[in-house]
Amino acid sequence: MKISREGAAKTRQSLLTTAGEIFGEKGYRETTIAEICRRAGTNIAAVNYHFGSKQALYIEAWRHAFSESIQTYPPSGGVSGDAPPEERLRGQVRAILRRITDRNNREFLFMQREMANPTGLLEEVLREEISPLQQRTEALVRELLGVMIPEQEAKFCELSIISQCMNPVVAGRGLGGKTGGRNGPLDIEDLEAYADHVVNFSLAGIRAVRKAWEERNRSKKAGRPSVSLKDGSRRP
Fold first, then answer.
1. Which of 26, 38, 80, 120 has the lowest CB atom count within 10 Å?
2. 81 and 150 in contact (C-beta within 8 Å)?
3. Angstrom distance (rounded) from CA 104 to CA 99
4. In CATH, what number does 74-235 get?
5. Which tens digit of pLDDT belongs to each residue from 37-59?
6. What is the tens place of the pLDDT at every residue in 173-229?
7. At 127, is the secondary structure helix, strand, or coil?
8. What is the pTM of this model?
9. For the domain with range 1-72, which CATH number is right: 1.10.357.10, 3.40.50.2300, 1.10.10.10, 3.30.470.30?
């Protein structure tokens, strides 16, 4: 019996959604194709037809979960590209936090499992999908820092911003919940307040970095002697 194109697309979608749920719950190694097919209401032949292997289904299920996540929480956070860079940074931070704190977000569940028990299967797709988001943040940070700041310094600032978003969540998904105690993961109930804190803290740091490098460059132009620091940089 010939399966219609619409039916095939529906089966593929069901497999992607179901696989994402189970891979997120159990991880790659503990998940079986039989379980995915049973929950999706299809058979193993459908997996072989649409994906060819468990590994390919795993990769495509993550890509599907990531795509849904980005559609739900656009990287801009709803802020116009014409807005001042400070506001665009605020939009990006809010989008990141909303995305990774959504407990129904299969993308982040995937990554939790992958970090706990790495398969190496997502390395390439992560570079393809995550790198543009990182480059977006790097470009915004560079805009705030100015063109004279070294590339490494700009990268450090971008990493600092992302880490502030990720660390409390990775420590126990403590945003918006009651996890943690005196010595447990950070407990943050007000997501918007934390987003504002990350942005204000980061902007203050970026301004400090920019000011330090501008003073350093002025000193060099004036011919003043500078002092070598342990990291190899020089201070006026």
1. 120
2. no
3. 10
4. 1.10.357
5. 999 999 999 999 999 999 999 99
6. 544 444 444 443 445 678 899 999 999 999 999 999 999 998 888 888 787 555 555
7. helix
8. 0.79
9. 1.10.357.10
